[in-house]
């Protein structure tokens, strides 16, 4: 495709702790012409997700690890710029696993067409109207089995998934307590997002605040962080509580391994359950959730905040570290500029 180069970020080594510059290789190669039944996408947005840290590790998981020397796996969004595929035309906008690169040649497997507008910017399809929204929806409503009037606690409350979970719980008539880091994030979730209360885990005693804010116990805990916060909430469960395991970002970069829960016997005492889930298991029902989320967004009943960083593919490693340092509010997205 002319003289354009495809700049890429590849995994060069398995990280220990935070992924530093030594684990990445920056490469470039000519942009390929699309083969028969294939097309080329110019990537415009790269999604930054906590799951990326797990994808870098060797070992058995729900998805195979990114291979050493392979382009880093990433959800993204982009525009079709060349096509030999009957189902995808030049100018179509698509989203799916595109990788950390400027261009990708693909047969379209797993990609979905979307239609950004002035009211719905492209990055929203990586946030509320994408996998983020689907994760919040099915985790809370299917795994968490939320009932009206229950008390919900969500960690990572100012992050991509947590901020949506709390709003969905409010729409369904729950009392919502968010756990976040810093006064600005706590003010955002109780202000714009409408949570009933927030706990600043950096300055407050989480266990003590849970006793004050959930005196009758926690019915649903949506866990995005694991570690000590998970233990604190396990100490405040209500009878027949549901603990939804979505992630454990506090543990992903630990040099000493994952910290398991100490208060797990409360699952027995309170006849509670703790269950993990993968949003991909619900892909045949994404349309159901997407329709309702889009409707609530149009009505102003739910808000979506995208923390957009403008940069190039080469900026990806540093932007990813923002996620693990807790510097983002809402969904973190790298918007690619063309230098």
How are the elements arranged and paired?
Elements: E1 5-11, E2 24-30, E3 39-47, H1 51-55, E4 75-83, E5 93-97, E6 103-106, E7 112-114, H2 131-143, E8 151-155, H3 160-171, E9 175-180, H4 183-190, E10 197-200, H5 206-213, E11 218-223, H6 227-234, E12 237-245, H7 266-269, E13 273-276, H8 286-299, E14 306-311, H9 316-324, E15 331-336
Parallel strand pairs: 8-9, 8-11, 9-10, 11-12, 12-13, 14-15
Antiparallel strand pairs: 1-2, 3-4, 3-6, 3-15, 4-5, 5-7
Report on the structure:
The chain is an alpha/beta fold. It folds into 2 domains: 5-126 and 305-336, Quinone Oxidoreductase, Chain A, domain 1 (Alpha-Beta Complex); 131-280, NAD(P)-binding Rossmann-like Domain (Rossmann fold). It is built from 9 helices and 15 strands. The chain has helices at residues 51-55, 131-143, 160-171, 183-190, 206-213, 227-234, 266-269, 286-299, 316-324, and strands at residues 5-11, 24-30, 39-47, 75-83, 93-97, 103-106, 112-114, 151-155, 175-180, 197-200, 218-223, 237-245, 273-276, 306-311, 331-336. The strands form 3 sheets. Strands 3, 4, 5, 6, 7, 14 and 15 form a 7-stranded mixed beta sheet that branches. β11 (218-223), α6 (227-234) and β12 form a beta-alpha-beta unit. α2 (131-143) crosses α8 (286-299). The radius of gyration is 20 Å and the shape is globular. The mean pLDDT is 95.
